[in-house]
Amino acid sequence: MTPIDRPASRVFAPNGPLIWGLTATQIMGWGNLYHCFPLYMQQMQAEFGWSMTESNLALTIGLVMADLVAIPVGHWVDRRGGHVIMTCGAALGAVMLALWSQVETLSGLYAIWIFMGMAQGCSLGLVPAAVVTANVRDYRRGLAYVSFFSSLASTIAIPLVSLLISAIGWRHSLMVQAGVQLLGPVCVNAVVLRGTRGSRSGERGKPASERQPSPVPRVLRMPAFWFLALACSIHWFIAMSVSVHILPLMHERGLSLQTSVALVAMNGPASVAGRLMMFYLVPGNSGILTGRFMFPMFAAGTLLLALATDFWSFAAYAVVFGMAAGVLMIVRQTSVAEIFGTRGYGAITGALTTVSILPRTMAPLSVAFLHDWFGSYDQVVWILFALTVVGTVAFYLAAGARRGE
Questions:
Q1: Percent of the chain with pLDDT over 90
Q2: Interior CA angle at 53 toward 48 and 58, to 5°?
Q3: HEC profile for 304-365?
Q4: Which residues in 110-137 are b (16+ Cβ under 10 Å) and which e?
Q5: Distance of alpha carbon 350 from its chain centroid, rounded?
Q6: Measured CA distances, 183 to 20, 186, 187, 194 (Å)
Q7: How many C-beta neighbours within 10 Å does residue 149 have?
């Protein structure tokens, strides 16, 4: 490892208050700011008569904004740590939830989700990963802890919010979530992130002659970055496409709605099982080692989907695909540090996120277009399988450039 890649001092334990505080904020934050969106859209479509396309455009706007702020937010976290930006991002989310409860027009909803996306980009996902990488001694284990428990956010939030909406209505439910966001992520971030640093903290005070340049331009010139970006973008594209189109695909192949919902529900436990396997079986929770196994498994899951025709074949798909898709979220976080070093982690992961804007936001629409073009999902799923093969090869090429911690 060259001096430019030397990581900042890490003083926090992988099982201490910082990790458990971040875990709590991610569970509540993902539940409040992302996973419950479909529940509220059903209510708003019924009340205002909006189409599915009109209402779901708000989520697309939010995803785009979250990706657009990824690079500047990453630079901030690298330089100053996550205390201020994660606390302010969580607070912005609380304000947007409260304003959402008062919305009456589509334009108002879209405006709210511009800022909701900014709140997500400042407080969720790769930002806490950058905090862990820069501050926790065993950052791989710390990332595994946070990612594993954060995956339970939808399992916890969706049924609770569904009951809340049924009891007090969607507007009051959003106000309750705003309160939870304020008392939970905002307060916890304000306390547990105090004293944390970024991977480049302390560099600003040095004389100009002693300052090291940002690692991002150097990383962008490395073929490994673009191979990893391709692999991650394909993962995002496939995961987003399948999550939106899996129910109509199963219906097209003759499964009932009840059976399809039961099969889709298997993805969650399968994802948890996959993360447990990584946590206990992979030496050092290495993202590269895990990715070398899980990317081919992800391709195998997509192949099973292409071949599935009945309950048991779809069940096999759900287990294999769910395990791989869940673990690859962690692989993306840890492999960046293992391949490129931990200095500048926030900005590098921000660049990867920005590259994935189109795959993330256009995936469902692209698959819908292909379905209409071919007249069924049969050819579409084979295209998705071909993409997973490309993604697997790309990850292996990126992993071959590993430079160490």
A1: 33
A2: 80
A3: HHHHCCCHHHHHHHHHHHHHHHHHHHHHHHHHHHHHHCCCCHHHHHHHHHHHCHHHHHHHHH
A4: bbbbebbbbbbbbbbbbbbbbbbbbbbe
A5: 12
A6: 16, 6, 6, 17
A7: 18
Contact 100, 174 (CB under 8 A): yes
Average pLDDT over residues 41-51: 86
pTM over 0.85: no
As a whole number, mean pLDDT of residues 324-338 equals: 81
- One DSSP character per residue, 166-207 reads HHH-HHHHHHHHHHHHIIIIIHHHHHHTTT---TTTTSTTS-
What's the distance, Cα to Cα, between the start and end of the chain in Å?
Answer: 7
Q: Which helix (H) or strand (E) holds 237?
A: helix 223-252
Q: What is the mean pLDDT of residues 255-262?
A: 79
Residue 91 and residue 86: Cα distance in Å, rounded?
A: 8
Residues 6+ apart with CB under 8 A from 341: 1, 4, 5, 6, 7, 215, 403, 404, 405
Q: Quick one: pLDDT band at residue 210, thresholds 50, 70, 90?
A: low
Residue with tokens 């890649």: 5
SS3 state at 220? helix
Instruction: Identify the residue whose tokens are 């129910």.
Output: 247
Structure tokens at 332: 């993306």
Q: Which of 140, 198, 196, 80 is nearest to 336 (CA)?
A: 140
Q: 299 is written with which tokens?
A: 């391709």
> What residues are paired with 12 via a beta bridge?
136
DSSP letters, 249-313, are HHHHTT--HHHHHHHHHTHHHHHHHHHHHHHHHSGGG-HHHHHHHHHHHHHHHHHHHHH--SHHH
User: Hey, what domains does the chain have and what are their CATH numbers?
Assistant: 10-201 (1.20.1250.20), 215-399 (1.20.1250.20)
Could you say which DSSP state residue 136 is in?
B
